[in-house]
From TrEMBL:
Binds 1 zinc ion. This is M3 family metallopeptidase. Its cofactor is Zn(2+). Keywords: Hydrolase, Metal-binding, Metalloprotease, Protease, Signal, Zinc. Gene3D superfamilies: Collagenase (Catalytic Domain), Neurolysin, domain 3. It comes from the Bacteria. Belongs to the peptidase M3 family. InterPro entries: M3A_DCP, MetalloPept_cat_dom_sf, Neurolysin/TOP_dom2, Pept_M3A_M3B, Pept_M3A_M3B_dom. Residues 280-718 form the Peptidase M3A/M3B catalytic domain. Pfam families: Peptidase_M3. The keyword Hydrolase applies. Residues 1-20 form the signal peptide.
Length: 724
């Protein structure tokens, strides 16, 4: 998951903040104090005076105010969210009912400033439901989801408000708005239209029903998957964990003890399952672990998600057609770089054929070693054997160099070398945290000493926490009511090591950590004026995070941080050479497992008639694409959180591949310069790619940065596929 953006249109919440590289106190020639007065009219209507007010009030404490995690309870959070809705309703009513003619200042800027109290509460809500996830918070999420959806629709469907937004956008040229102001006004107008603002009253009522039903289904899906992931494979015989690295074995033992079990527990999350499938020599046990993992949400019990998915795709199809689109994918791709499903399919199909051909080669190599057919639970295990045979490269040889704390420090060093950010750990208790495991770091600009913000790091899995790795922002930089710093976070799901023992992670985990950290750097670098222009297109937002993965194996980071936990020596170049020689190894598997998920996502959301049997659709879709039988989708539909906990990545999972084209081309740019920390390229990357948000067309921004369009051939070369 990634940097959170909530929009008023479409039944969701807008968290509003702004950035200014110049620290100016004027917006389009209007003093900020005047703009603040526009929104203050609404704030005065319903003052925050209730017992739950502390969760709505401006955050206090050090570092320009921090979230009051230590004062959050499920009951208080629910009450705060409900009161926040009322406060926001009053603010928007004041804007819509303003007797003055609509202007950029009294409409668009006032809207940016509305909803601040519920924005603060929603930051707490996201963490308590996603990172903590106790039954009490799950109950709050179920209750509030439809209420929040309806409250968002109320804003979108407000005819007077939409008329004001449309008037400002349509009259942008006559009013002399700047290019940035015009972009904000036009994007706001178009977003309202895509979300149903131009529908008639009967259609709006139907759209509201659909949005509320979707909100309920999204919450139900996510909670069912979390419940199915709160499981493990219990192993009592040491032969069942044979082959695991000492650190993986110790982590499995610790996981068992934390559940009052003897032996070992392989937790049902990817960070525990993949190492077991890669190193565990007990084939029957691998099959058990694999089946438990890939069947999350698909067991025909109370946590089965198939009916929920069928309801979601039906509702999405109804919504798309109500809004005048042929299908959900066409609706979702209006505000993307790809623009159409056909463009996304074109890129995916260009990569799909060579990826499948590579899988056939990989399977042949593995079968020669195994002496039997390769099943999905065999793939990672025998791929490791082939890697050892071909490249003399062993996963167990790599792990001692990737101790979690060192990997994080290496990421901080990357941020300092590229962008001039420094990260200093805060002593425990300096600021409140939502769990004792959370580490907090102060971020400063090295050149000036200016405080930039805080970085919260929540690294470990726990019962109730959703799986995977994601980034989010609790507060974005703002200058509207005084300068506000950035509060960003990364979230992982590593299994804790034994007390006193180092936590060793895989190279893949290290790259994932750098990936999510790239999202945080995107937030910390922001320097645009209007907060609503902060969120970039879905098929662009992954680009800055993906490119940062490449620095993991850069020599300065290896020498300074990736040191063997026993010898203290940095990774030798001979081992790096082996990794680089094997860089395109197993790319058939990696590409097919990801791309099959992206293809099925787009296939699902372009159907003329939504399927009702989701398992059957998944099988038939994969068969149409010729999915190799030895591989399973990285995310099967029954557990595909990207698609079914919100609309965010629906008809959009292709975006990782779209972003990877720019990512590969950018990394080639750094490499070709002879210095992967090239300060001139890094400065331009920060200024154009990271800092601008969505203030200009992102394709045009890439051309300004690179001097041309991204080259798809760079992606094919990175993955080791023929360049056609």
């Amino acid at each position: 998951m990634h940097r959170r953006q909530f929009f008023a249109a479409g039944g969701s919440l807008m968290v509003l903040s702004a950035c200014s590289a110049t620290g100016m106190d004027m917006v389009g020639g209007t003093p900020v104090s005047t703009l603040a007065a526009d929104a203050a009219v609404a704030r005065a209507v319903l003052p925050v005076q209730s017992p739950q007010a502390e969760l709505l009030q401006v955050w206090t404490g050090p570092y320009e105010g921090v979230p009051p995690w230590d004062r959050v309870t499920a009951e208080k959070l629910k009450a705060a969210m409900l009161e926040g809705i009322e406060l926001r309703r009053a603010e928007y009513a004041a804007i819509a009912d303003n007797p003055e003619p609509p202007t950029f200042a009294n409409t668009l800027v006032a809207m940016q400033m509305a909803g601040e109290p519920i924005g603060r509460a929603f930051a707490l809500f996201g963490v308590m439901t996603g990172n903590i996830g106790t039954p009490e918070y799950q109950a709050v999420a179920r209750e509030l989801s439809p209420i929040l959806s309806a409250a968002g629709d109320e804003i979108t469907f407000n005819e007077k408000l939409f008329a004001r937004v449309k008037a400002v956008a349509d009259g942008a040229a006559a009013a002399g708005l700047t290019a940035e102001q015009t972009r904000l006004a036009e994007r706001s107008r178009d977003g309202f239209v895509r979300s149903g603002a131009a529908l008639n009253p009967t259609q709006k009522a139907e759209l509201g029903r659909i949005n509320t039903a979707l909100a309920n289904a999204f919450t139900a899906f996510g909670q069912k998957v979390v419940a199915d992931e709160n499981a493990w494979t219990h192993i009592t015989d040491e032969a069942g964990v044979a082959g695991l690295s000492p650190s993986d074995k110790a982590a499995a033992a610790a996981a068992a003890r934390s559940r009052n079990l003897e032996g070992w527990a392989i937790v049902n999350t990817r960070s525990s399952v993949d190492p077991f499938l890669t190193l565990g020599s007990d084939r029957a046990q691998r099959e058990i672990v694999w089946k438990k993992f890939v069947n999350r949400g698909d067991n025909g019990d109370a946590n089965d998600t198939n009916a929920t998915i069928a309801e979601i795709v039906k509702l999405r199809d109804q919504r798309a057609k109500l809004l005048g689109y042929a299908n959900h994918a066409e609706l979702r791709m209006q505000d993307t770089m790809a623009k159409t499903p056909e463009a996304a399919f074109e890129l995916m199909n260009r990569v799909w054929a060579p990826a499948k051909a590579r899988v056939a080669e990989e399977v042949a190599d593995m079968r020669a070693i195994a002496g039997h057919d390769i099943e999905p639970w065999d793939y990672l295990f025998y791929a490791e054997k082939v890697k050892k045979q071909k490249y003399d490269l062993d996963q167990n040889e790599l792990k001692p160099y990737f101790e979690l704390g060192n990997v994080k420090r290496g990421a901080f060093y990357m941020a300092e070398r590229l962008y001039g950010f420094t990260f200093t750990p805060l002593a425990a208790g300096t600021v409140p945290v939502f769990h004792p495991d959370v580490e907090v770091f102060e971020v400063k600009d090295k050149a000036t000493g200016r405080h930039v913000g805080l970085f919260y790091s929540d690294d470990f899995s726990r019962t109730g926490k959703r799986s995977g790795a994601w980034a989010t922002t609790y507060r974005s930089y703002s200058t509207y009511d005084g300068v506000k710093n950035v509060l960003s976070s990364n979230n992982n799901n590593f299994t804790k090591a034994e007390p006193g023992q180092p936590l060793l992670i895989s190279l893949d985990d290290a790259e994932t950590l750098f990936h999510e950290f790239g999202h945080a750097l995107h937030s910390l670098s922001a320097a645009y004026t209007y907060p609503a222009l902060g969120g970039t297109p879905r098929d662009y937002v992954e680009y800055p995070s993906q490119v940062h993965e490449h620095w993991v194996l850069s020599r300065p980071i290896l020498d300074g941080f990736m040191k063997h936990v026993e010898t203290g020596q940095p990774m030798p170049q001979s081992l790096v050479d082996k990794i680089e020689a094997a860089a395109t190894f197993n790319q058939g598997y990696a590409t097919v497992s990801y791309l099959s998920s992206a293809l099925v996502d787009m296939d699902l959301h372009t159907q003329a008639t939504p399927p009702t049997d989701i398992d059957a659709f998944e099988r038939e879709s994969l068969a149409r694409y010729g999915m190799p039988k030895e591989i399973v989708m990285r995310h099967r539909l029954p557990q595909f959180n990207h698609l079914f906990t919100s609309d965010a990545y629906s008809a959009g999972y292709y975006s990782y591949l779209w972003s990877e084209v720019m990512d590969a081309d950018t990394w080639a740019y750094f490499e070709e310069s002879g210095d992967v920390f090239n300060p001139d390229i890094a400065a331009r990357y920060k200024a154009i790619i990271l800092a601008e948000g969505n203030t200009t067309d992102r394709a045009e921004a890439y051309r300004r940065f690179r001097g041309r369009n991204p080259d798809v051939a760079a992606l094919l070369r990175v993955r080791g596929f023929p360049v056609s």
